[in-house]
Design a protein that fits this description.
The complex is a heterodimer of chains A (437) and B (160). A 7-stranded antiparallel sheet of chain A has the order 11-17-16-15-14-13-12, sandwiched between helices. A 4-stranded antiparallel sheet of chain A has the order 4-3-2-5, with no helix packed on it. Chain A is built from 10 helices and 17 strands. Chain A has 2 domains: 51-157, Rieske [2Fe-2S] iron-sulphur domain (Rieske Iron-sulfur Protein); 179-419, Naphthalene 1,2-dioxygenase Alpha Subunit, Chain A, domain 1. The two termini of chain A are 20 Å apart. Chain A is of the alpha+beta class. Chain B has 160 residues and is α+β, with helices and mostly antiparallel strands. Helices cover 23% and strands 42% of the residues of chain B. Classes of the chains: A alpha+beta (437), B alpha+beta (160). Strand 11 (194-204) of chain A pairs parallel with strand 8 of chain B, so a sheet runs across the interface. The structure holds FE2/S2 (inorganic) cluster and fe (ii) ion.
């Protein structure tokens, strides 16, 4: 047995290595191992990444704030007086209580309920009761400096109305992190000031990475989501593209409506006929009434940014989805739907009606929660086996001009493994010493 | 406060709610659209949106044809968790009446049971409804189910 055959079964995580350099096999244990989960929180979510926090449009006024989770770190993001955005870790610098208890709100300062330490919206400590004691007794030592006891701050940058934060000490720029593909496609969608339409939330009994595998995988979309295939909002036979970032972790999958014909659909869907209904007609066609926002025919576009963001345009529905891990076995998915500030009532109504297609109850997305839950259920007892990810072939993780591929999924695992220091060893490199032998 | 309706009509309202829940619980989804008028609106909205005046709903069917489409989609196209539902619906509170249209409110919970026989709370909330009194039967003109349980467990396929 070669090193590479056992090292992904290694319990010492400093010796754990991915089974192959193509990232065509994922060890199932990464979906359920709590030590791996803890390492992800540190190396991925508090590591060299930019995490999506909120839309600027959710924070309309100075003092507006929103509570979110970045990995398992509670974070509050706020709009400042000067229009900039700030974010802090929502854990009191005194003895650790949650400072901001509301999901949304507006406040100039935040007082911790426990001992009333009071912070500015940016997280600076601005008030400490009994600092000099009461009637000359008690109080903090003379050298107590409030400036040294603020909340932990995140680096914050926005692009096109999306606010990102990083817990790393010296992250590179957000733009360098996102790269040109993501920029180009965010530029395509986020063309005007946004208007928030509301939220969906979903708690899925599956590891957060299973959701990324799902969202990056156009192979399943034409087969699992039969409503989409039937009505042509998405079919594998349509013209479609799969773009991967240099690091592999971000991707874009999109397809162009009306680019396949009846014959090719019948030919390629004949194997899945029991669910693919060619004669299924909607009683109310207004559900799919689409007034394109853009003139490129793209009906289905999914942008994903490592490690917690998905941006969608499906017909007229526009949304961000924030992935919040809840331990190895669960996750929360928060969908923020939006339109543009200058939408008229008809267009807003189209967007709202099409929400029937998406979200946890949506005709073309409810299956995803079920599919990844089934994976989580089936891998519970597994310590050795791996999945098989080779649709579209092996080799370089690069863009494709079709959607019959799992290349973005391999890309995700590449960036994941590198961030986690799980990348396969170079040929001939020494196996690291065991911690204690 | 005196009720705007007499005891017989109130009993018909109660029956409407109980029969509605039962139809879903026994998987008679085909009967579900029949509980609504042809131009009815059926909307399931997360409480966090409702309370903040945000319009996004989880399900928003406008008219019986869209309700029918939901049933056909669930039967023929969609794949979802294998389960059965149990509706527990509180007594109705009649909050108003305008001719043959009643305004009514109920609290609801839906328990969901999987194939291992494990039951969990799936949904809790309140529904603000308008009911049209017809000779033959009562039908919903409008149901707005405001979902307390807006952290939807897994997914929401079958109607509430
Ligand atoms: S824990 Fe916050 S003031 Fe003491
Ligand atoms: Fe999907």
């Amino acid at each position: 047995m070669q090193d590479s055959d056992y090292i992904f079964r290694e319990h010492d995580l400093d010796r754990f290595r991915w089974p192959d350099a193509d990232y065509a096999h994922t060890p199932y244990r990464v979906f359920k191992d709590s030590a791996i989960y803890e390492r992800e929180m540190e190396k991925v979510f508090r590591g060299p990444t930019w995490g999506y926090l909120a839309l600027e449009a959710e924070l309309p006024e100075a003092g507006s704030f929103k509570s979110v989770m970045l990995g398992n770190t509670p974070v509050v993001v706020s709009r400042e007086e000067d229009g900039s955005f700030s974010a802090f870790v929502n854990r009191c610098a005194h003895r650790g209580a949650t400072v901001v208890r509301e999901e949304f709100g507006k406040a100039d300062t935040h007082a911790c309920i426990y001992h009333q330490w009071c912070y500015s919206s940016a997280g600076d400590l601005v008030g400490v009761p009994y600092r000099r004691g009461v009637s000359g007794k008690g109080g903090y030592p003379k050298d107590f400096k409030p400036a040294q006891h603020g909340l932990r701050k995140l680096h914050v940058e926005s692009y096109k109305g999306l606010i990102f934060g990083s817990l790393q000490n010296e992250p590179g720029t957000l733009m360098a992190y996102l790269g040109p593909h993501i920029k180009e496609h965010l530029d395509r969608i986020l063309v005007k000031p946004l208007k928030v339409l509301g939220y969906h939330r979903q708690r899925i009994s599956a590891n957060w990475k299973l959701y990324f595998e799902n969202i990056k995988d156009p192979y399943h979309a034409g087969l699992l989501h039969m409503f989409a295939a039937t009505f042509g909002t998405y079919r594998s036979t349509q013209e479609g593209y799969t773009l991967v970032s240099d690091g592999g972790g971000h991707s874009i999958v999109y397809s162009v409506m009306g680019t396949d014909d009846h014959d090719s659909v019948s030919e390629h869907y004949k194997d899945v006929k029991d669910k693919y209904q060619t004669d299924f007609q909607l009683n109310d066609g207004t559900l799919l009434q689409w007034t394109p926002d853009f003139d490129d025919g793209i009906g289905n576009l999914i942008i994903s940014v490592f490690p917690n963001l998905v941006v969608q345009q499906i017909l007229n529905t526009l949304a961000t989805r924030q992935v919040r891990p809840l331990g190895p076995d669960g996750m929360e998915l928060v969908w923020t739907f939006f339109g543009f500030e200058d939408d008229d009532d008809t267009l807003t109504d189209d967007r709202l009606r099409q929400l029937n297609l998406v979200g946890p109850a949506g005709y073309i997305s409810m299956e995803d929660g079920e599919a990844i839950r089934l994976v989580q259920q089936a891998i519970q007892g597994e310590t050795d086996a791996t999945s098989f990810i080779q649709m579209g072939g092996l080799g370089p993780i690069v863009d494709a001009d079709h959607v019959v591929t799992e290349v973005c999924t391999r890309g995700f695992w590449k960036q994941y493994a590198q961030t986690m220091e799980f990348a396969p060893r170079e040929e001939g490199a020494p196996v690291p010493e065991k911690a204690h032998d | 406060m005196t009720s705007p309706i007499d005891g017989d009509l109130y009993q018909r309202v109660q029956d409407l709610y109980q029969n509605y829940g039962h139809a879903i619980d026994v998987d008679d989804l085909e009967a579900w659209p029949e509980f609504f008028t042809a131009d009815a609106r059926y909307c399931v909205i997360p409480r966090e949106n409702h309370d903040r005046g945000l319009p996004a709903a989880l399900i928003d069917c406008r008219g019986r044809p869209m309700l029918l489409d939901r049933v056909v989609a669930l039967r023929t196209a969609n794949i979802y968790n294998i389960h059965f539902d149990r509706h527990l619906v509180s007594p109705a509170v009649i909050t108003g009446r305008d001719g043959d249209v009643l305004e009514s409110r109920v609290n609801f919970t839906v328990m969901q049971t999987d194939q291992s026989g494990v039951t969990r709370l799936f949904a809790a909330g309140v529904s603000y409804d308008r009911i049209r009194v017809e000779e033959q039967r009562l039908r919903f003109l409008d149901r707005r189910l405001v979902l307390d349980t807006y952290g939807v467990p897994e997914l929401l396929a079958t109607p509430l």
